[in-house]
Amino acid sequence: AQSVTQPDIHITVSEGASLELRCNYSYGATPYLFWYVQSPGQGLQLLLKYFSGDTLVQGIKGFEAEFKRSQSSFNLRKPSVHWSDAAEYFCAVGRDFGNEKLTFGTGTRLTIIP
Amino acid sequence: GAGVSQSPSNKVTEKGKDVELRCDPISGHTALYWYRQSLGQGLEFLIYFQGNSAPDKSGLPSDRFSAERTGGSVSTLTIQRTQQEDSAVYLCASSLEAGGQETQYFGPGTRLLVL
To answer: Contact A80/A17 with Cβ under 8 angstroms?
Structure first.
């Protein structure tokens, strides 16, 4: 069965600093990979997704993620965070011939300090 | 256009009562999903509907949980004889169709508290 691990429960970053959120997946075939963001009281919003092709994926709000098959990772990065990036971030994996039944990680809560 | 909407936004109920949670997907989306977000459990898949096909119920935690989708649009998730462990945020999502590379768009969720 597929699984997703987000090893960092909570990360604190200074505004303007760079950010990297870790995501490791377990899946036998080529995965479909997603990063979602959830702001307080809001639903999940898709930041970016990877299905195939270029392993560096650009998303909204200045985020990017890199798929590394050898490390089974799909880490999310942003070169300079803004206070509005404070939220919870979820990595998810979907099946190789569909993305129904997304399997989510437990999330990483991001706090931004001035 | 309008996104996925869910109602109610909050629901408080007593243990043993039945509750119904509603989801209105994005117009034209044929696939609809229910997830549960619990403290310490993350997001769990519950059920999904694709068009007129039989739903995939493999994520439902017990037979107290059921869902239906009327006319291929609105869906209702019903929890019978609620238990305190059912307290969670229930999220609905929709996509143009299931599978492929379709993005799931999520609603704001219904926060359920069972006393």
So the answer is: yes
Residue A98 pLDDT exceeds 80:
no
Q: Look at B108 and A42 and tell me if their CB atoms are within 8 Å.
A: yes
Burial class (CB within 10 angstroms; exposed 0-12, middle 13-18, buried 19+) of B95: buried
Read off the pLDDT of residues A10-60 as tens digits, 9 standing for 90 and up: 999 999 999 999 999 987 677 889 999 999 877 899 999 998 888 899 999
- Closest chain A residue to B107 measured between Cα atoms? A43
- Are residues A100 and B100, on separate chains, in Cβ contact within 8 Å? no
- The angle formed by the CA atoms of residues A3, B60 and A106, to the nearest 5 degrees, is 35
Q: How wide is the angle at C-alpha A76 spanned by C-alphas B38 and B110, nearest 5°?
A: 25
Tokens 């590379």 belong to B101
Distance CA(A114)–CA(A13), nearest Å, equals 9
